[in-house]
């Protein structure tokens, strides 16, 4: 029921505003609006007033007119409102604190070595650290030296500290690398499905992005060879999100492709520290004396995603472009944090911490896997396991995953999805954020939501 007031706003505008609100909040796409004659009778308005309101709605795309049938709510506009609603739902849910949050890339609060960090941090503050000057643009030399030693011994990465740049996370690294490589070529290949952050940064840099599909051996090299790309972004040790490892023969093929085409491989080695069934395989960067690989790593997975420390290892050939392009820019990581991390690595705490975090997350991984198999038995299939901070799960029964997400939300539980080969939506359940004794209960609650979602067909 529309209401009209006697004021300076013309009646047709009052009617137009009210129908518009109705379309946004109540009316379904494709539903028919009352005929002009019916509106005249119902509201005692003139035919002209109603026609003008409808004309305005039509001009703005809220309604469509069908010959001899009348006016209908436009399909397009309805879908846009749906999208807006979903987006605001997503935004709200991203910042919310959930009772149970299966975020795929978090560590638990207790796994951060706070005591040691405090000890080393105060040592740094008591040292003669100079806060009055701009520090090294590329990142502190001492920290770069320690990262070089660690990468050499654990990942067989071959470089000097001068090739290392300290950044404040993957997107920062990708922005620097993408900017450097753009001086060589405008087109860049990327894994599909792949890491959305990498794609976003490359889109912002206005790259012509070529998707290369993933198969059971990692990226399809034949597809890559058909492109004119001069660089490719890869997660070769543990493909994100499928978990596939590129076998050695294909790694060598890729390096040969890069050598032959004067191209570069961006190797994102984001979580090789967290491998539970086998030792992590060496990085591509160290293979075949490769000066064609740009290596990017992070401290987010094994130490803390909150510290925001990551790094790039640039091939020597690309250093001059880095110096000339980024001569304005300083590492975004505060000097005291860099120095604390340097001591953490230098004094042997990092090696100990890695052993601890690997064991801890291996246990959490087992608890989550066993709980899932116990509570959901043959209703699910675990698609990816054995490393990282989450398990990928495919339902084996008919279940509406959107409904599951909404029901979870109602219970203050957050679940996440990823793409897996040709499957557009599989569940990515993170275990890293939980304490060991919380996981089974989290899965029990998940099972209750699952049962509820199953009953909606
Ligand atoms: C594929 C991939 N690369 C890199 C990162 C590291 O991101 P950051 O260093 O910004 O924490 C992540 C984190 O989840 C990731 O999934």
TrEMBL record:
Gene3D superfamilies: Type I PLP-dependent aspartate aminotransferase-like (Major domain), Winged helix-like DNA-binding domain superfamily/Winged helix DNA-binding domain. Transmembrane segments: none annotated. It comes from the Bacteria. InterPro entries: Aminotransferase_I/II_large (IPR004839), HTH_trans_reg/aminotransferase (IPR051446), PyrdxlP-dep_Trfase (IPR015424), PyrdxlP-dep_Trfase_major (IPR015421), Tscrpt_reg_HTH_GntR (IPR000524), WH-like_DNA-bd_sf (IPR036388), WH_DNA-bd_sf (IPR036390). Keywords: DNA-binding, Pyridoxal phosphate, Transcription, Transcription regulation. Residues 9-76 form the HTH gntR-type domain. GO terms for molecular function: DNA binding; DNA-binding transcription factor activity; pyridoxal phosphate binding. In the C-terminal section; belongs to the class-I pyridoxal-phosphate-dependent aminotransferase family. This is Transcriptional regulator, MocR family (Aminotransferase domain). It comes from Arcobacter venerupis.
